[in-house]
Write a structure and sequence with these properties.
Blueprint: H1 5-16, H2 23-29, E1 36-42, E2 47-51, H3 52-68, E3 76-80, H4 85-96, E4 100-103, H5 110-119, E5 124-127, E6 148-151, E7 161-162, E8 183-188, E9 198-202, H6 205-215, E10 225-227, H7 234-247, E11 251-255, H8 260-269, E12 274-277, H9 279-287, E13 298-302, H10 308-317, E14 323-328, E15 332-336, E16 354-355, E17 361-364, E18 378-383, H11 399-403, E19 412-421, E20 427-432, E21 437-439, E22 442-444, H12 446-453, E23 459-469, E24 473-482, H13 490-503, E25 512-515, H14 529-542
Parallel strand pairs: 1-11, 3-4, 3-5, 5-6, 6-7, 10-12, 12-13, 13-14, 24-25
Antiparallel strand pairs: 1-2, 8-9, 14-15, 15-16, 17-18, 18-19, 19-20, 21-22, 23-24
Helix pairs in contact: 1-6, 2-4, 3-4, 6-7, 8-9, 9-10
Bound molecules: adenosine-5'-triphosphate (ATP) and magnesium ion.
Adenosine-5'-triphosphate binds next to strand 14, strand 19 and strand 20.
Keywords: ATP-binding, Ligase, Nucleotide-binding
InterPro entries: AMP-bd_C, AMP-bd_C_sf, AMP-dep_synth/lig_dom, ANL_N_sf, Mitochondrial_ACSM
Pfam families: AMP-binding, AMP-binding_C
Length: about 550
């Protein structure tokens, strides 16, 4: 990075936001053929290095196969594939054709897959053999789908053609140029607050992914970098696949599902120095940490609030305190406790950091579209006039929900999250707008109460929601998952209430504590509090 972050932002925009931008060139062909893009690690810890030269050769072959299926600029190609060398080659093939990638998470059930395939107007879906069964007709899958199904591997699957069998005669065709405004990916939000929203991602968004890789993650050429997130989601796609490919720095790709034990083994065996993962991953690592430790140079987390107990634990167990980064599918990361030396600043405890270079974030007052004074809780917003890296253009086919994201003058993008900013520009996350609890005039973020509940040795996880109350407007109720071997009793419920009164606030304790086996979550692991509110209302109705 140059001396001035803003100069670097302009350089990146010059590279990615131009009329002749070609995604396959930017993500693959411009890097030295012998450079390693990914070290692909298998569940038995064996590994292979995948070079840019190999990726180019393989993706040219697949691109020719896609051309044979009639895939060209703007066509949608979905993948239902595990994290693998083949996945990266397929993605590059899609972009080589100027086509648009539609990511599908391998943990999705058929309804979630059908919803995205339809909404994205998909022409071809490429699936791993063990996933192809989900595309079979029946239920939500049409008998005569508008998309073609292609499978990787050698198995014969009814209704599908094998990728390896597609004729690939025209391998010399040049990569298609779609320009900075051309579409790269058609992604969907996580669906934490309702139906997922379609977010079209233009090629120029690569500038912001590259910037995050340098400014916030501080990935250096000699790092062993690993972002454990799944590329079926924004965090994994942007920063485990696209970030490494734009910056040309080697990173790990684990061809296996998540387990804390395997994660510890990979960290150890491959000498990871720079690690990124969602808070749930860090919590799981802590749960299975007996006999393990790591010596990381950088550790970053995003996607959900990072609870202080994880930060405290990581300093010792990982060799470095995890830093919190905040973003959305709609923009990627925008507010971060950045790791780069020049941006590095001592953040107050619990802060998710400051606006990254290229982004101007603020907090708007609740009552009017003006900036809130320091420390006041309000709506976290992005200044569309002063955020050079901004690329979001609205939701796919949903002008109504797109319009809700902006103030009436169009100046501010509203993230839908509540928080505050101090006089030094550090942000504190409070809650999603929908999750803020207003009790007797007090605004309470569930996250602060949850952070206290998980301090109890018997508690594995907790979620707090507000439920209607005649007297106080809303009252708090807690849904608590206990650690193995712990039983939920009235005494324990009282203990938890007392803990919150002591460590948070006397008035904001949960009036009712529900002991539950698990919490409703999106496939990416985010707690869906709106479902708990429904559950709480139903239970109240029955009392
Ligand atoms: P949907 O928009 O469909 O309801 P979603 O908002 O969970 O789902 P994503 O775009 O994956 O979809 O997630 C972005 C949201 O995740 C943010 O708006 C914020 O609520 C939460 N988030 C992300 N990073 C952080 C963080 N570091 N701290 C607190 N919350 C975070
Ligand atoms: Mg959202």
């Amino acid at each position: 990075m140059g001396a001035d972050p803003n100069t670097r932002v302009r350089e990146l925009l010059d590279t990615y936001d131009r009329g002749d931008a070609c995604a396959a060139e930017l993500l693959c062909d411009r890097h030295p053929a012998e450079a390693v893009a990914f070290t692909v690690v298998e569940s038995d810890l064996s590994s292979v290095d995948l070079t840019y030269g190999e990726l180019r050769e393989r993706s040219e072959r697949y691109a020719a196969a896609l051309a044979g299926l009639g895939i060209g600029p703007g066509d949608r190609v979905a993948t239902l594939m595990a994290k693998s060398a083949d996945l990266v080659a397929v993605l590059l093939a899609v972009w080589r054709r100027g086509a648009v990638h539609v990511p599908l998470f391998t943990a999705f059930a058929p309804p979630a897959i059908a919803f995205r395939l339809r909404a994205a107007d998909t022409a071809v879906v490429i699936a791993d053999p063990d996933q192809a069964g989900k595309l079979a007709p029946g239920g939500d899958m049409p008998a005569d789908p508008p998309w073609r199904t292609v499978v990787t591997g050698q198995d014969d699957i009814a209704g599908a053609v094998r990728l390896a069998d597609l004729p690939a005669s025209d391998t010399g065709a040049p990569a298609v140029t779609v320009g900075g405004d051309g579409l790269l990916v058609q992604l969907f939000t996580s669906g934490t607050t309702g139906t997922p929203k379609g977010v079209p991602i233009p090629v120029r968004a690569l500038a912001s992914f590259h910037a995050y890789q340098e400014f916030a993650l501080d990935v250096r050429p000699d790092d062993v970098f690993w972002n454990a997130a799944d590329p079926g989601w924004a965090y994994g796609l942007y920063y485990a696949i696209l970030g490494p490919l734009v910056s040309g720095t080697r990173s790990l790709l684990l061809h296996a599902g998540f387990s804390p034990e395997l994660t510890w083994q990979v960290l150890d065996r491959f000498g990871v120095t720079n690690f990124a993962a969602a808070p749930t991953v860090y919590r799981a690592l802590r749960g299975g940490s007996e006999g393990h430790s790591a010596r990381l140079r950088r550790a970053s987390s995003a996607g959900e609030p990072l609870t202080p107990d994880v930060v405290a634990w990581s300093a010792e167990a990982l060799g470095v305190a995890v830093r919190d980064h905040y973003g959305q599918t709609e923009h990627g990361m925008v507010i971060c406790n950045a790791w780069h030396d020049e941006l590095n600043a001592i953040a107050p405890a619990g802060s998710m950091g400051r606006s990254l270079p290229g982004w101007a974030c603020t907090v708007l007052a609740d009552e009017a579209d003006i900036e809130a004074p320091p420390g006041q809780l309000g709506r976290i917003a992005i200044d569309t006039r002063h955020s050079a890296l901004l690329w979001f253009v609205g939701y796919l086919g949903d002008p109504e929900r797109s319009a809700q994201r902006y103030t009436s003058d169009g100046r501010w993008y509203l993230t839908g999250d509540a928080g505050s900013r101090d006089s030094d520009g550090f942000f504190h996350f409070s809650a999603r707008d929908d999750d803020v609890i207003i009790m007797a005039g007090y605004r309470i973020g569930p996250f602060e109460v949850e952070s206290v509940l998980v301090l109890h040795s018997g508690v594995a996880e907790a979620a707090v929601v507000g439920l209607p109350d005649e007297l106080r407007g809303e009252v708090l109720e807690a849904f608590v998952v206990l650690r193995e071997g712990v039983t939920g009793t009235d005494t324990l419920a009282e203990e938890l209430q007392t803990l919150v009164k002591k460590k948070f606030a006397a008035h904001a304790y949960p009036r009712r504590v529900h002991f539950v086996r698990d919490l409703p979550k999106t496939p990416s692991g985010k707690i869906q509090r709106f479902l708990l509110r429904d559950q709480g209302r139903t239970a109240a109705g029955q009392r």
